[in-house]
Amino acid sequence: MTNSPHKHPQKSPHKYPCLKQDFGASIVVFLVALPLCVGVAVASGVPAELGLVTGIVGGIVTGLLPGSSLQVSGPAAGLTVLVFEAVREFGLPALGAIVLAAGVLQLVMGALKLGRWFRAISVSVVEGMLAGIGLVIIAGQMYAAAGMTAPASGIDKITGLPEAFVEAVGSTTALASIAIGAGTVAVVVLWKRLPETVRAVPGALAAVVLATLAALAFDLPVATVEVQGLLDAVQVPGADAFGELASPAALGTVLAFALIASAESLFSAAAVDRLHDGERTQYDKELMAQGAGNAVCGALGALPMTAVIVRSSANVQAGAKTKASRVLHGVWLLLFAALLPGALALIPLPALAGILVHAGWKLIPFRQIASLWRTHRGEALILVVTAVAIVAVNMFEGVLIGLALSVAKTAWEASHIKLEVIDKGAGPVQAYLSGNATFLQLPKILDSLEALPQDRPIELNLSGLHHLDHACRTALESWAERHSASGTEPVKVTSP
What we know:
Transcription Regulator spoIIAA; two-stranded antiparallel ribbon; 62% helix; four-stranded mixed beta sheet; 7% strand
């Protein structure tokens, strides 16, 4: 009996047709992520290994979940300031509980389908947030580049720089450290001008490797990364850590982590979608994927994660086609942390400071500020005020100030109203109101109407109004009654 060829179809030899592109992209993303994971952890005041843990979870856990197929998650420079403040105020053991709670909150927001609402946040507020964070990172890492301890507040970091510079000039150790940091920044900036074959190695990785070799070759007196080992660095939060969540300050930090990480991730998703023609981001699912990743990071006592535009754009540009690339990048980070932990101990701290100074500089949207100033000065003002508030106060309150300004500006613009008066010298005076008549503009409306002639009949046309609230309607009716009581003809009102 002859078997039918249709009963046992042959498996396609191309079961994973994009594996080659995804494999290559995963190597690139791994090389980009490695120095950033370590640098963000050190700048956040936590063991370097915890940055790698967050990168691993971002790749393997969040990477496997639905949402956005090509954006890559991990520890982000944008949360460095907030994490540092949280560790200083509540201690490292409590960080895991805070991150876990923030992750659960993200999961709840995603389940309630609130992900799409993050797209409604003013872009100026988000860019102002990033600019403020960038300024604080740059100022803080300049101290780290000189081997000094940075002041606590953003204002003190900036105002203390001249004194720190004078102190550094008189110290050979500080000058050697600054040389490593400045050299790292120079390599990162100039790397883009080298031939394409050389640029196959990410600039940040090349800068850290060259800085490490220079420190070893010249036996420079610079501090290096402290290594604990991956398992020793992981701290599962205990009952005491969760007890910290009872304080209003800790709950505020949880809320800040959840909202800022979510906003940064979903704005990154929108940016990544513009870079490729593949599957679009499902915002609610992506929010839940970020929440699941942060919940796992919190359970391991690691840093919070967000989607990171630098890694995500590198992933797209390297030719990634599916989520396999970001999952594999997490695998490579895990293998590095497990097999080569000693390599971290060779990395000079000022080199990581240089990487973060460059990252902080890129967070400041200079072109967007200039463009907004030419076209929408109100939005430019919101951006600048948000950034300054973050530096002067702190990140959470600075963002709230920016959001309040944005809402106030929108409310004011929504209340824009125009009164046009046509007086031909004889007959009734014609008054046309157009726009949005709300209580915010009520004084202006009444002042204009009361300035009309009292001894002439008036025709008030409201057909051009898009909105007339109760306060304005009542006030207009009262004005019409007062005007009609003066012995003139009753005011004729055309309703909207």
